[in-house]
Amino acid sequence: MIRKFLIERISWVSLIVLLQLLALILAYLDSSLSIDSMFYYVFLSLVISSLFVVIRYFKETSFFKELDLRDSTTDITSLPEPNSPFESFIYNEITSLIEQLEKDSSTNRLLLEQEKDEMLSWIHEVKTPLTALKLIIDRTEDHQLKSELMHEWLRIYYLLDQQLHKKRIPFIENDLFIENVELESILYSEIHMLRSWCLKKGIGFDVELSSTHVLTDVKWLSFILRQILTNAVKYSEEGSEITIQSAVQKGQTILNVTDNGRGIDPPRDVPRIFDKGFTSINKHQDQHATGMGLYLAKKAAIPLGIHISVWSTVGRGTTFTLTFSKENRFLQIQGE
């Protein structure tokens, strides 16, 4: 801060030094002036000027140092009182800027809340004709047409579902209901939703659950599994099988979802698949991927105390592993 203070007042310092040099030059040119007396005058002037600069430094910077020591989140009333006209000017500028920023922030929050509510309302309204459309598809007798319509219906349903949970994730802590849930019922419910797509690709499921219950929120766990299962079906080869296994390791429930698809290619993309908007279009050129499913699954897993990891081999398949927290550790996470 000292350096900045001196740089801002370089014109003052230069003027003081210039006046002292001028006095010495006059003493040198004018023989009637004593050079020793002039040196003494210059010395005293420099001492007084230095003391003046030091005093002004501490006086003028005390206001700003007090601002730096305060929390940036404090309100306007906590700002230090100005001690000079210059500080009053700075004080007024800062307070007016903070007031404007607080006003803009409040307006933006209201707009975001309004936009979120409108989006949620729109999604729920769209789900009504979507449900009616599914009933119409179920009555279709042409099995080939029914399969194709269900596949497209499923894509629309999952896109809407992603948008709904995307809007809810920032407030997920307010939406959690923790209970002891049965993994089998959740898994079979999600598999049943994918039935038409799996029949079309000839994909089967092998479910072996050694650990059958976990402490979690059923709605958000269903959403996480939905993203992983749809990803597994999407990238599995026709006629292949998806294996789902659970076990207990070191007091923690482990759930593995393994497909026999092409794997993640190139392998360097593995750490990036949970990044927002990331889509790998190498080889398969998937134009419809949004890059949001796994990102939202990862975001939703954090407050649930679920760790998601992935292992993949090109040409052999991919395994997603969900590691659930121990009950005591989960309760500790919730308490934080």
UniProtKB/TrEMBL annotation:
Task: List the subcellular locations.
Answer: Cell membrane
Xref: PROSITE patterns: HIS_KIN
- Which major enzyme category is it? transferase
Membrane-spanning segments = 12-29, 41-58
> What is the species listed in this Swiss-Prot or TrEMBL entry?
Gracilibacillus boraciitolerans JCM 21714
The protein's name: histidine kinase
Listed EC numbers: 2.7.13.3
Q: Which keywords are on file for this protein?
A: ATP-binding, Cell membrane, Kinase, Membrane, Nucleotide-binding, Phosphoprotein, Transferase, Transmembrane, Transmembrane helix, Two-component regulatory system
Its chief place of residence is membrane
